[in-house]
Write a structure and sequence with these properties.
The structure is a single chain. A hairpin with a 5-residue loop joins strand 7 and strand 8. By secondary structure, the protein is of the alpha+beta class. It folds into two domains: about 60 residues, no CATH class; about 180 residues, ABC-type transport auxiliary lipoprotein component (Rossmann fold, 3-Layer(aba) Sandwich). About 25% of the residues are buried. Helices cover about 35% and strands about 20% of the residues. The radius of gyration is 21 Å and the shape is globular. Strands 4, 5, 7, 8 and 9 form a five-stranded mixed β-sheet that branches. A two-stranded antiparallel sheet has the order 1-2. A two-stranded antiparallel ribbon has the order 3-11. The N terminus is likely disordered.
């Protein structure tokens, strides 16, 4: 088995704490002593029945699938991290069912608070995907999604986040911008274009859902989905390449 120098270097950098190699002096990873940073919630959600709705203007079939994946990921992260009690998170498939019942255009035109009331929710986390790009060429990809986030009280119709007194932008209701993306990654040559694109969209949707959900609960820098996990994934890819003949 061949181990490329870059893969070995990455392996050493991922080691936490002192490492002994063949009787040599102990070495430590550069960030071994670094402390993870706590990031407080920007807006703690009220613990009541909450639904996540993700929309995109003029969505085609692939974008529609992406928005559903983001909604499911956000809902799961809110429940898993106790931003809202799991029993208070409206299942993502209920949103899909309501949208199919009304039709995509009619659903999109519906006021946000009405969407929530029809799903028996008191809070709506409304996300608009303004741009989704895989930024892919023959060898590399850097997927990115630009999102606009609002939280609306369905009982009063009031926007809770951003704050009600936040200024409008270009005549549109204020929203909190979120940019979610993945590090540059080498595309797997064994995948077909369609399979590779589906994987990248799925991974991007997970990252986007995580980024949105983290607005609403405290989280640590070294939690899943951060640079540490991305580096782990990169290392695993390097190991697979090293096993190639």
């Amino acid at each position: 088995m061949r181990f490329r120098r870059t893969a070995c270097a990455a392996w050493l950098l991922l080691m936490i704490g002192p490492v002994s190699i063949g009787g040599c002096a102990l070495i430590e990873a550069p960030f071994a002593a670094a402390k993870s940073r706590k990031n407080p919630a920007l807006f703690p959600l009220p613990n009541r029945r909450t639904v996540v709705v993700v929309e995109a203007q003029g969505a085609d079939a692939l974008t529609e699938q992406f928005t559903r994946q983001v909604a499911a990921s956000t809902s799961q992260q809110l429940a898993d991290n106790a931003a809202v009690a799991a029993s208070n998170v409206v299942p993502a498939n209920e949103v899909v069912a309501l949208k199919e019942q009304w039709g995509a255009d009619a659903f999109r035109a519906m006021p946000i608070d009405e969407m929530g009331r029809r799903l028996n929710a008191e809070t709506v986390v409304y996300v608009e995907a303004s741009r989704v790009s895989l930024n892919a060429d023959a060898s590399f990809s850097r997927p990115e999604a630009q999102l606009q986030v609002r939280v609306v009280d369905t009982m009063t119709g009031q926007r809770l986040f951003p704050q009600p007194d936040a200024p409008s932008i270009g005549g549109r209701a204020p929203a909190y911008p979120v940019v979610a993306g993945r590090s540059f990654e080498t595309l797997d040559p064994s995948e077909t274009d369609r399979t590779s694109e589906a994987r990248m969209r799925r991974d991007l949707a997970h990252s986007a859902g995580l980024s949105v959900a983290r607005l609403f609960y405290d989280w640590q820098d070294d939690a899943p989905g951060t640079a540490a996990e991305a580096e782990k994934r990169r290392l695993e890819a390097a190991r697979r390449r090293d096993r190639e003949p």
